[in-house]
């Protein structure tokens, strides 16, 4: 057997049996323990913040039963949703960042559900203080993130000490495939312990079929003996998928062992981040990419857009009226500028903006605005400088053509041009376009007079699509309003 001591985190014979038994026990209790810990933490935070707030605001501890009810309801929404999403699986607790992001997202959804339930049960709303709900939200979110951080640290230390393993695996395959698997995936970061490895003996290209079979039989016999002694949880076949005969013979040989058998990933899969085996009845396929946003995420984003766009229009109505009057007084022409743009799935729609130019370009050629553009009106320069010309797009958001946050839509002529020149440009249309976006708050707005500028904008747009969350939308909206970078190149 060819061992890999630098990657074998817990492969010593004297620890193998103990680690295997510990892993089986831990797998059976880990999810339940974290589930109960979440519930207990949320209920405790609810009672603690409620009692503290009541003591400060009213001089008494308040109604403990009310705080318990809210805590149990919030814990039920959060913990049960996590359970169905598979968040309590052990492999999720070997990295903090992705797990923290999902925790923030789901806790925001929990708050929305609590507010909706409070609104629907108005007869009970007098019992709850809005200030306490905000305090409870912030304290519980901070506590959950700290809890996740501590659990990740504990599992990482336990894994490094050889006391914990998400899975103990044995690798078999060609040297190139095994090395590529280890170097690319770094299995130890996923809680995977490589306990052994067998490199298949290289055979000359001129060797006969009988010689190839004999060499493979010898390798498999030695690998089976090693696996029986080590007792891994799974065997990974690190072989090119085109080597179907070798794969079939390896799988047939290892079927006699009480282990999982996995076909290791082909190197082409390294280009895709969300590869997943999909089954629809008896049809099995390898899904290379997923929907940009799940149906649940689409619902969250749409609800967020409707609430904030409607609130924004109501709050900004006096400004809209004032700007409309000033535009009519400043120069002849309509108040609004309407132009065709591509939206979700490259479906055309008409974007609405305050008119800032003397011209209304919407043809095959649309010159981009530049600094000191002679087409700009006197008022238009000021409106564009402070992004006020974008406010009417809130009507596009309510109509469902746009979102508050997303890749900025370009004129059709610009879309056609850059789609020919930049790879993956069309992926920007996999979500609804936005009034503001990740690229804009990072300074990539204004004219794209060079291909490099457009590439940077596209890179930021694709990052937003691949990392979307309600928290990211809120962050972008806040930076759009407050950060000087969001006003860079606004002319």
SSE layout and pairing:
Elements: H1 13-58, H2 64-84, H3 96-120, H4 130-160, E1 167-173, H5 175-185, E2 192-199, H6 209-230, E3 234-238, H7 244-254, E4 260-263, E5 276-280, E6 283-287, H8 295-330, E7 336-342, E8 348-354, H9 378-385, H10 393-399, E9 403-405, H11 412-421, E10 434-436, H12 438-441, H13 451-466, H14 470-482
Parallel strand pairs: 1-2, 1-3, 3-4, 9-10
Antiparallel strand pairs: 5-6, 7-8
Helix pairs in contact: 1-2, 1-4, 2-3, 3-4, 8-10
Q: What this model shows, in words?
A:
By secondary structure, the chain is of the alpha/beta class. The chain has three domains: 15-160, no CATH class; 167-287, Rossmann fold (3-Layer(aba) Sandwich); 295-487, no CATH class. The protein is built from 14 helices and ten strands. The strands form four sheets. The chain has a four-stranded parallel sheet. Helix 1 packs antiparallel against helix 2 (64-84) and helix 2 packs across helix 3 (96-120). The radius of gyration is 29 Å and the shape is flat. The chain starts with 12 loop residues before the first helix and ends in a 9-residue tail after the last helix. Residues 1-16 have low confidence and may be disordered.
